[in-house]
Amino acid sequence: MQDAALRLKALMEQLLGAPLPVRIRAWDGSEAGPPESPVLVVRNRRALRRLLWKPGELGMARAWVAGDLTVDGDLYAVLDVMAELVWERGEDARTLREALRDPEVRAAVWGLVRMAGPPLPPAPPREEVRRRSHLHTKRSDRRAISHHYDVGNDFYEIVLGSSMVYSCAYWDSPDGTLEDAQRDKLGLVARKLDLKPGMRLLDVGCGWGSMAIHAAREYGVSVVGVTLSQEQAAYARKRVAEEGLTDRIEIRVQDYRDVTDGPYDAISSIGMAEHVGSDRYLEYARDLFALLKPGGRLLNHQIGRRPWGNESAYEIDEFIDAYVFPDGELAPIGGTVSGLEAAGFEVRDVESIREHYGLTLRRWVANLEADWPTAVRLTSPGRARVWRLYMAASALAFERNRIGVNQVLAVRTPDTGTSGMPLRARSWR
Fold first, then answer.
1. What CA–CA distances, in Å, run from 192 to 113, 222, 300?
2. Of 121, 268, 100, 89, whose CA–CA distance to 193 is shortest?
3. E strand or H helix at 342, and its extent?
4. How far apart, in Å, are the Cα atoms of 11 and each of 85, 111, 170, 405?
């Protein structure tokens, strides 16, 4: 008798204490749940064992990455209705120990145990990182960056498109092209930094060289770009040579903490500060402050999270830490601004471009899905699933104001107080 979906639905609703907002399709072909709802496909009993051995987000992620759990239809719709149950529990969520005090919850768990079969825990997917610490040493940061970025430049070409910019684009219209929006973002950064011919720019976390090339080609500046990724550096150097800009751009495999050849006229840090860690943020800000000449500008482009009422309760996202950005941390924008000010910067402008990242991520997901067989061949099925889930879930998080992204313009204002900023700062638009 094919009834696994019906039993699973009943147990999940007993466990959650609420109707299940998705339709379930089980490994025996049975289905249960609202007919018009998005479909969550539980492909085998191993998915249940993953959830039982690691309840919550990480268990769901392991099942997804391993292919034990998938979606039939609109991934965004499933993520949206499941978010409050798994990914957006927040600081008020009950712990498993607290939940198990409820007799109905215990009964549901035992029901799932009986359905799951042999009790041995499945091995985590090979794409999972075994985290050692969040100390953010130079060695651990280099290892974390390699995990995230040394996936293969060909894979990133599929996802990012020809711009090869891995950060939030700046859209004039939702109907625009990704390439135009990324070009406009690089131009926005350059205008905020007031780049001019002959200036020296340090691009921290330079990626595949797009900002460095744009600044040198369009504004006539000399650029040093630093990255910890060997693959990024090789790709960026090739692009620089093809553009004929080797006399203006130097790409280094170097930790920003080891850059000693300042002062620079300007510094761009685009999507890099998320890797720094809260305990090291003041060190990061002080290092960049020391590398700027008096009057020099920093443009810090950084993802931020919503503040918690009890900040000590905040924990790094399990899925992202294990599969995407090992040791990555998000901070509220207030903490970012405070850290820059504590280092000596004068913060002159803060611009939120949150909605722009939702648009950007949806384009990246569409690129990945459009060339899925190639992406799988270039990496692995599990790695491709990681990226699809991560980017789709992140798009929803930006759209729902669960996280944001901000450009903070800061100046190393000299003792004279002359910042060099225009009276109407928004003139860079």
1. 57, 17, 11
2. 268
3. helix 333-342
4. 15, 7, 45, 39
The answer to whether 246 touches 223, Cβ cutoff 8 Å, is: no
- DSSP H or E run through 227: strand 222-227
Q: What are phi and psi of 127, to 5 degrees?
A: -75, -10
Bridge partners of 298, per DSSP, are 267, 410
Amino acid at 355: E
Q: Is 411 exposed, middle or buried (0-12, 13-18, 19+ CB in 10 A)?
A: buried
The CA-to-CA distance between both ends of the chain, in Å, stands at: 65
Whether 269 contacts 205, CB under 8 Å = yes
Tokens 């969550």 belong to residue = 40
Instruction: List residues bridging with 221 in a β-sheet.
Output: none
Pull the structure tokens for residue 49.
């064992």
What is the value of pTM for the model shown?
0.91
User: What pLDDT, on the 0 to 100 scale, is given for residue 14?
Assistant: 81
CB 149 within 8 A of CB 336: no
Query: What pLDDT was estimated at residue 92?
Result: 47
What is the phi/psi pair of residue 203, to 5°?
Answer: -105, 105
Residue 69, classed as helix, strand or coil, is strand
Q: Are strands 264-270 and 292-305 parallel, antiparallel or unpaired?
A: parallel
pLDDT value for 31: 94
- What are the structure tokens assigned to 255, written together? 């930790």
- Phi, psi for residue 75 in degrees, rounded to 5: -60, -40
CB atoms within 10 A of CB 195: 24
pLDDT at 135 (0 to 100)? 58
In the chain (429 residues long), the average pLDDT of successive 10-residue segments reads 83 81 93 91 95 87 96 92 63 52 71 83 88 60 57 92 97 97 98 97 97 98 96 96 98 96 98 91 97 98 94 85 85 96 98 98 98 95 95 96 97 96 78
Tell me how far apart the alpha carbons of residues 97 and 109 are, in angstroms, rounded to a whole number: 12
CA of residue 88 relative to chain centroid, distance: 16
